[in-house]
Amino acid sequence: MNNFDLLKSPGDVNKEIVMRMRQRRKEKKLTQVQLSERSDVSLGTLKRFERTGEISLSSLIKIAFALGCEGDFDELFSKKGYASIQEVIDEQR
Question: What span, in angstroms and rounded, lies between the C-alpha atoms of 21 and 10?
Fold first, then answer.
């Protein structure tokens, strides 16, 4: 296996998010209709998301809140990107 086997594509990440959301919905014993009502996201949008992975960010956040997963967004884009090892060293001083 080479390093490229470990890289995920945007499509891979999308599929994993859909699978985890569906799993969380089922763990909470919610139907698509119930989640749609709790999240204020239309049933059509929810079904399309589970089928294709397509959804607006605001609808995804509403679903996350309805499933008690809103904290999962707290880390998104929060880690500083470093251009070099020297930047890491300099920041630790």
Answer: 17
Q: CA 89 to CA 93: how far, in whole Å?
A: 7
Q: How far apart are the C-alpha atoms of 42 and 64, rounded to whole Å? A: 14
What dotted CATH number matches 3-92?
A: 1.10.260.40
pLDDT tens figures, 58-83: 999 999 999 999 999 888 888 777 77
Domain parsing of the chain, residue ranges: 3-92
Give the 3-state secondary structure of residue 74: coil
- Alpha carbon separation from 92 to 74, 79, 86 (Å, rounded): 23, 15, 10
pTM summary value = 0.78
At 34 the three-state DSSP class reads helix
| Contacts for 77 with CB less than 8 Å, ≥ 6 apart | none
Identify whether the C-beta of residue 11 lies closer than 8 Å to the C-beta of residue 29.
no
Structure tokens at 35: 């989640």
